[in-house]
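subagent[fold] <- orchestrator: predict structure for attached chain, return tokens only, no commentary.
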Amino acid sequence: MINAQKRIPVGRVKPGMYVAGLDRSWLETPFLFHRKLIKSAEEIEVLKRRGVREVIIDVSRGLDVDVAAVEEPLAAEGNADHRAPKSDGPRTPNAGELNFRALALELENAQRTHQEALAAAESIFDGVRGGGPIKREIAQRVVADLGASIARSPEANLLLMQMRRFQMDLFVHAINVCVLSLVVGTLEEFDFDAPAFALGALLHDVGETRIPRNLLRKQEAFTESERKLLAQHPTLGALLLQNAEELPPLGRQIVLEHHERIDGSGYPNRLRGADVSLASQVVAITDAYDDMLSGRNQAPLQPSEVLRQLFLQSNAGALDRALVERVIRCLGVYPIGSLVELNTGERGIVVAANRADTLKPTVRIMTTRTGMNQYNGPIVSLADSDNGAPERRIVAALDPGRERIDPLAFLKLTSAVTA
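subagent[fold] -> orchestrator:
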């Protein structure tokens, strides 16, 4: 397997390269995430001014060092005959295979990061519930660690979020929404202030620490008085952040606005359109996604039904349709870790979304057409078609619990990872 990532000095970075990591802390740079296609010399200068000395480039998503070195003179000469001959080296792995390798390599580390993040978030929310201040340094460490893990593999982090989808604790929901928001921000490359956006996503429901727990756990319909009480939590949360030292304004804005809707139907201030910040709109969608998936205030829904509900809300004008589509493009119709059945009779685990066609993700085949388990199954992109081979497509999403299947058992890195 070819290593798609290379560490190079910042002086060798050229437009067209895809930066997958920096040698400075995520919180010390103006970039939302350390995954970015370099589009101009000005962006390289920003890296240098911020003290970056080395970067990691991903040659599967941008120019390689050697390619960038010869691009300019070749273009100036305008002579295609001078180009270096193509190498007959090993086959370059496709994006799905690379994503799976990153997932498998990061999974153990991500599990440790998530466990530490969950414990830290529980301590933050319990502390606030007991009347204490928001533990800013702990919150910053949580979002920094999650951001670094997501930069290495969004898929590993989405998988772990899916594994706890039926846990309804406030601190679990906080981590889930933070992970979802950071993944969307990473893949869509939104131009948000990094620490503020991440902290806002993590603390968006901190006001619920001032709401009775029995109300938060209620799954029956709320009474009018209960609904009014619950609707106070964004304002309560914003007040808690206002009194916290060194928490950025955007974080407070997200906490205050994450239940606003662009048609004015939200709360607490019934904002409309662009009056709701883009960062708040992203967190509003990921918050609703996790609420419906985990069943915090209703019976849990299957991922496909959650996406349908988000589309219905966008069609009604409450959510921005284009933004909903961008979120779904990142998360996929079949989320990472989904157990799916193919038209061939095979079963597989979704290991990577396909942002160009969300109905055709990348899967690891885990059972053959005859039903035999294969823990070292091939990695298959359903968007790719092999000459002469039957087209593979998903015909059903299955419940791993009902099928008594642990998806993690089929996601180990082995030597055979290609189809």
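orchestrator: received. Logging for downstream: The first helix runs from residue 41 to 49. The chain has three domains: 5-80, 96-331, 339-410.
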